[in-house]
Records
---
Amino acid sequence: KNQVEQSPQSLIILEGKNCTLQCNYTVSPFSNLRWYKQDTGRGPVSLTIMTFSENTKSNGRYTATLDADTKQSSLHITASQLSDSASYICVANTNAGKSTFGDGTTLTVKP
Amino acid sequence: GAGVSQSPRYKVAKRGQDVALRCDPISGHVSLFWYQQALGQGPEFLTYFQNEAQLDKSGLPSDRFFAERPEGSVSTLKIQRTQQEDSAVYLCASSLGGPGVPRYTDTQYFGPGTRLTVL
């Protein structure tokens, strides 16, 4: 069964600090992995997408990594801002077009 | 430009009522997706359209759920005889799509969702 597990479930950090969110996936056959940011009351917004052959991708202060051998991905947020407070969702996609979403990590950035 | 819009934003239904949720995708987007998101969980796939054709409805939880996109633009998700376990946020997403574009690589743009509460 395809699964995506994210950790931690929630995280509180101070403004300006860095943090790393984890995603472990078991999907087959693996095609790509996306990270989304979902603000409260809004739909998810794509941050990065990585295929099997890519192991890092950046989008501003967000850097995603992918280890296809261990089936792990991480999202690193640098110099956090209050507006980074949101749920971050990892999604693993198969070549057959199936998407498996994780339950997300809720990040709270405090001043 | 305008993003994906959904209406209503909030819907309260009594158990047993039928509801219809509307999605207006980004103009020109070929692909349209519906997801169900329970509180504190990630979205779960319901169904996928390419233009007016419903190519994948494997995620629809029961035959009470029905989706259509008759003219290849606006889509409606209908839930008949609602039950309490149907309470969730229903998200719609669209992507550019097109011939030869795999749906699993295309960026999806999500609407704000409709929060359905069944009493």
Note: The CA atoms of residues 34 and 49 of chain A lie 4 Å apart.
---
Amino acid sequence: KNQVEQSPQSLIILEGKNCTLQCNYTVSPFSNLRWYKQDTGRGPVSLTIMTFSENTKSNGRYTATLDADTKQSSLHITASQLSDSASYICVVSLQTGANNLFFGTGTRLTVIP
Amino acid sequence: DGGITQSPKYLFRKEGQNVTLSCEQNLNHDAMYWYRQDPGQGLRLIYYSQIVNDFQKGDIAEGYSVSREKKESFPLTVTSAQKNPTAFYLCASSIGQSLNQPQHFGDGTRLSIL
């Protein structure tokens, strides 16, 4: 069964600290993996997208890694800011098929001063 | 600025009533999608359209209907047959017709029951 699991479900960190969010998937055959940031009451915004051959991609203070062998991805946030408080959603897509996106339930990150 | 506009931001439905959620994009994207987001669940696909005048059911299409008469517009109607419509509805679009293409999202419509 194609699934995407994210951990932790929620996380609270102090401003300025680093954190890492996890995404494990069983989606196969794999096409790409994306991380989105969703602020409360807003739509998701794309942070990174990685294909099978890419194992790391950065977007400012956000760095995503992908291990296609173990089917794991992580999103590392460096020097967190209050504006990083949001939900982070992992999305994995199949290579084929008309309806081929699988969404994780997200990690709710709260950055406190 | 190009983007996706959803309206209204908040919507209330009475029992037995149909309501329509608007989604407009000026990105010149071919494909458009509707998702439903519930607390503690991943986004679920309701309907998608890869080209004008054509659309396909997603995983949870029952109780919903759509139309795609123009490339820019993809309205979603929540019918009275949808017994649990309270949710956050997100519209998205992508440049290509494949669901593998990165998707851009609107800011959602929150639908509640009166």
Note: Chain B touches chain A through 24 residues (CB under 8 Å).
